[in-house]
Each structure stands twice: as structure tokens, then as C-alpha cells.
Design a protein that fits this description.
The structure is a homodimer. The first copy, chain A, is an alpha/beta fold. In chain A, about 50% of the residues lie in helices and about 15% in strands. The longest helix of chain A is centred in the middle third of the chain and has 31 residues. Chains A, B: InterPro entries: 6-PGluconate_DH-like_C_sf, DUF2520, NAD(P)-bd_dom_sf, P5C_Rdtase_cat_N, TM1727-like_C_sf.
């Protein structure tokens, strides 16, 4: 399959490499920044372009891997071609594309990418949506070429997925950060906490998180919780976070196990 | 070294195995429950006892691996021996032991243990505190026999460590659980989120969490945050958690990077 990539950021970089490794041909890489386009194009053996006017119709699929806000603005450059177009965003609906492009789809990798960190794409969940059977099938086949975990996900579900990821990943990272700050304030290194964080993430690989919850809240250990709130009295915002999350853990525990 | 273990739960089980593997001899395992004492004693080649009156003074160290509440009650059974005693709790101060036992210490493994899951003790941070130089040295040597990560931590620091672990691990697990519930409500499997959770935990192995924060809050993406709050309107408690954590991420980001 011939694929052209619009964008040269993290998603564009990792996706193009995965396509190429799966035997597909990357025709063009477009970026507003020629240097950035050229770098990625070089790695995947494609032509680099920085002018939308020279984007070639000699391809089977356009992958839009650009910022959410930029997607709508880019549609006019592609809609005349009558070639399938898929965006890679978790938050943009299919309709934003399909109103202008009949063969529109979504090709959303549910993973966080850094340019310098290798990702095994076979483990990345690929969320697919198509405006019609044909494009859905094209995207599903392509997804299976690079990943073992392909899901058909509606635009409404994709929104929920994104929200769930904010809780389970973005907020989680912030809790790591709070832990780091608390340790630093008492002259301790975040290093001490890293193995416990790794084990916490590892534990849920085979379990539902609600069933492996530990800590003072799930034991309803009032004394420890009060002591913790006392320690946080100079940081009322952390007290609020502590209280809200503890209450939610207790509520959840009762919901799953009944009040004893 | 001859070591006797008071307790037969997760910490007792993993610690005794680690001591034995490091070449130490486990003399006795005490538990109120004889079956439980016998099972662990069998695995580590020790004698099982369920009566405090038959605890033998023929040992070099007692390790108390029992519930926090039970520690104070157990002291009378050991204080006549004049043998070093260390507890393994994150929350109990050294003083609770050292008031009654001169050679008192703390031997706290900062990790979450499950009986059925193997733990590589060499990676477990060991937090050591002693009432005097001699016991501190004994515990530090013992800790180095089983772990590569040994820290001298005061009782006050240990409390902070425990609080930081509640944020970075217990609360984190609850955020996983919220993610699972959100997906379930929209007919999606938690399986989809697992790779992203794994990568989020993996990312901070080499970085300070504040420097790798992602998501709508750190981008100050008001539109996405409003859309998320809208989706949660039937779950006001989750709205509160979302708002509080997002505010804290924004505040933290400004603190680290300045307001632009």
C-alpha cells in the first residue's frame, strides 16, 4: 500500500516507521517545517514536502497526524483527490472529516509516544472507525499489519477512551509528581518510590484495579487518614485531593463489596 | 545470622525467603494461627510456634512483621530477652519499640507484596532506622544482604514516605479503577487502556514526573477540559476529582515553567 503522511511529530514518526516495517511504502511526508519533513522522509524513504500544493495524489491513503486544531484547516488540501483520508486523533470526531471527504476514517493509536523512545507497535491498541465499509476494511487491515490489538471504536466511544486515559495516565503521572514533591520536601529521593510505582502498574496487568486496591482508604483506617491530612495542613489543595480520592475509594469499595 | 520472624503474612513470607536465600538461618516463625506459621516455617526450614511463651531467645534478631496495631501488644513477649527487635511498618515510629527495647530498629521494605507474586528483593528499597549505632549497623548489613537499595530513614521521613506512597500508588490504582469504570459504562474493555498505563509508569523510570506531564491540563486546553467535565455531569464526584487534579497540574506547571 502507498501511504502519505501529513505531519512529522511523534505520532507521524512512529506510525510511518511501523508502516514501513510492515512492508508498506511511504510516498510523501508533509510538514510546514521542511527540516522536520526531510528528517522523517529520509528515515522512511519518502519525499519531503512543505507546500500543500505539491502533495501528490499518487497514494492510496493519507494519514493526518497533525494537531487537532489543524485538521479542519487541512481538509481543503485533500478533499479534491478522492483518496481515503484518516486522522489519528483521540478527540476529533469522524464527522469532521467525513463531511468533506467520503472515504474518511480514524486511525487512532492509544499510546503516548516520545520521539526518542522506541515503541513496540504490536502492543499498541489501534482504534479504527470508517465512514463506510470500504474504508473501515482498509484501515482495519492496515492496523492489523502493525498491531495485535485492533478495535472498532465509534467517535462517542473514542471520546470516553480519551477521558479514561486522562484519569488513568495524565492524572496518574501528576500523582507521581505529588509523591516526588512530598519526598523532596523531606530530603528524600523519588528513586525510593520508583519500584513501588512500577509494581502498582504491574499488578493490574492481570487484575481489575478495583480488586487490588490497597491503602488506608480501602481499609477505612480513619486514624492513618487523619494523620495524613494533618501532615498536609500547609497544603490545603493536597488535602482536598486526598479527601476526595479517599472518599471515592471508600464509596467504590462499598459498591463492590457491600457495607460490612 | 539467626533470625526469628514474628508474623506469617505477606511481608513475613517474602522477607524470610529473602533472608534464607542470603544465607541466614530462620530459627522460629510465630503466628497466632499455627497452620499459617507451619506453612511458612516449612518453606524456610524453621520451627513453627503459635504461643508467645515458647518463643526462643536462641536467635540474634526478631523481625516483627505483624499488623501495626499488634506491635505494641507484642512487645511484652520480647522485651525480657535483651535481643535486637525490628519492626517492618511504614507508619509505626521507632520510639514505640525503643521505649521498651534498647536494641530496637525499623526494617521497612517499601514495596507492596502479594503472597502469590514473586518479588525480586534486590530491587526493593529497604528503609532502616536504629535506636543506636550497633542495631543500625546490624540492620543495614542485613538489608544489604537482600537488597541493592538501602536507605537510612528517620521515623518522621518514613511517615512522609508512606504518605507519598498513598498518592503515587494507592490513589493511582484508584485512577486506574475510574478509567476501567468509564470504559465499562461505554462497553469497552480495560484491556484497551493497559498498554498506556504501562507506558506511563515506564516513562518515569528515567524522568522526573513533572517534566513528562501530558494531557489537556498541562496544555491548558480549556475546550477539552470543558468537554470532559460535560461528559461527567452525571458523576459530580468525578467532576470534582477532574477539576482538582487539573488545577493542581496547571499550578504545578506554572511553578516549574513560569506563566507564559
Amino acid at each position: 500500500m502507498r501511504i502519505s503522511i501529513i505531519g512529522s511529530g511523534n505520532v507521524a514518526t512512529h506510525l510511518s516507521a511501523a508502516f514501513k516495517n510492515a512492508g508498506h511504502r511511504i510516498v510523501q511526508v508533509y510538514s510546514r517545517n521542511m527540516q522536520s519533513a526531510a528528517l522523517l522522509a529520509y528515515h522512511v524513504g519518502a519525499e519531503a514536502v512543505d507546500d500543500p500544493a505539491v502533495i501528490s495524489p499518487g497514494t492510496d491513503l493519507f494519514i493526518l497526524a497533525i494537531k487537532d486544531d489543524a485538521i479542519a484547516k487541512f481538509i481543503p488540501h485533500l478533499c479534491a483527490f478522492n483518496i481515503p483520508v484518516a486522522h489519528t486523533s483521540g478527540a476529533v470526531s469522524l464527522q469532521q472529516l467525513s463531511d468533506a471527504i467520503p472515504n474518511a476514517g480514524v486511525f487512532y493509536p492509544l499510546q503516548t509516544f516520545s520521539k526518542t523512545k522506541e515503541v513496540n507497535f504490536r502492543d499498541v491498541p489501534m482504534c479504527i472507525e470508517g465512514a463506510n465499509e470500504a474504508i473501515t476494511q482498509v484501515l482495519e487491515n492496515l492496523a492489523r499489519d502493525i498491531s495485535n490489538h485492533v478495535y472498532q471504536v465509534s467517535s462517542a466511544q473514542r471520546k470516553v477512551l480519551h477521558l479514561a486515559a486522562v484519569f488513568a495516565c495524565n492524572f496518574t503521572n501528576h500523582l507521581y509528581s505529588i509523591g516526588e514533591q512530598l519526598l523532596a520536601d523531606s530530603d528524600m529521593s523519588f528513586e525510593m518510590l520508583r519500584p513501588l510505582i512500577a509494581e502498582t502498574a504491574d499488578k493490574i496487568k492481570g487484575h481489575s484495579p478495583a480488586t487490588v486496591q490497597t491503602g488506608p482508604a480501602v481499609r477505612n483506617d480513619e486514624r492513618t487518614m487523619q494523620a495524613h491530612l494533618q501532615m498536609l495542613q500547609q497544603q490545603p489543595h493536597l488535602q482536598d485531593i486526598y479527601t476526595l480520592l479517599s472518599q471515592d475509594i471508600i464509596k467504590n469499595h462499598i459498591k463492590h463489596n457491600g457495607d460490612k
